[in-house]
Amino acid sequence: MDQEGLGGGFLRRGRFEIIGEILSLARDGARKTSIVYRANLNFNVVNKYLQLLVQEGLISPSEGSEELKTTEKGLLFLKAYKNFKGVAKNL
């Protein structure tokens, strides 16, 4: 979700915004294709982030399906990120 910047241009999302978006989308389970389209990212970018998120234990593949699901650790990260985002908004 891009934000409109000064002069009518758009600001790019940062790393934490993309991670937060992916973790939110995978909270109840999501396929990679769904994440790509719903987060408005390309497959190369999503693959890079998914590799990082799996490596850090924030997201995991569901057994027996192609879905990815946010782990408990990922949910804690997402909660902390949202809290920080709320505080930073007021600065």
Can you offer a commentary on this structure?
- The protein is of the alpha+beta class and 91 residues long.
- The protein has a single domain, classed as Winged helix-like DNA-binding domain superfamily/Winged helix DNA-binding domain (Arc Repressor Mutant, subunit A), CATH 1.10.10.
- The chain has 4 helices and 5 strands.
- The strands form 2 sheets. A 3-stranded antiparallel beta sheet has the order 3-5-4. A two-stranded antiparallel ribbon has the order 1-2.
- Helix 1 (15-25) packs across helix 4 (72-89).
- The radius of gyration is 14 Å and the shape is globular.
Secondary structure blueprint with pairings:
Blueprint: E1 3-4, E2 10-11, H1 15-25, E3 30-31, H2 32-38, H3 43-55, E4 59-61, E5 67-70, H4 72-89
Antiparallel strand pairs: 1-2, 3-5, 4-5
Helix pairs in contact: 1-4
- Strand order in space, largest sheet: 3-5-4
The chain-level mean pLDDT equals 89
For the biggest sheet, the summary is: 3 strands, antiparallel
Q: What is the number of strand segments?
A: 5
How many independent structural domains? 1
**Poorly predicted tracts of residues:** 1-7
H/I helix tally? 4
Corresponding CATH architecture:
Orthogonal Bundle
Beginning-to-end CA distance, first to last residue: 21 Å
Q: In percent, how much strand structure appears in the residues? A: 5-15%
CATH topology label: Arc Repressor Mutant, subunit A
State the helicity in percent bands: 40-55%
Q: Secondary-structure element order, as H and E?
A: EEHEHHEEH
In the CATH scheme, the class would be: Mainly Alpha
Oligomer: single chain
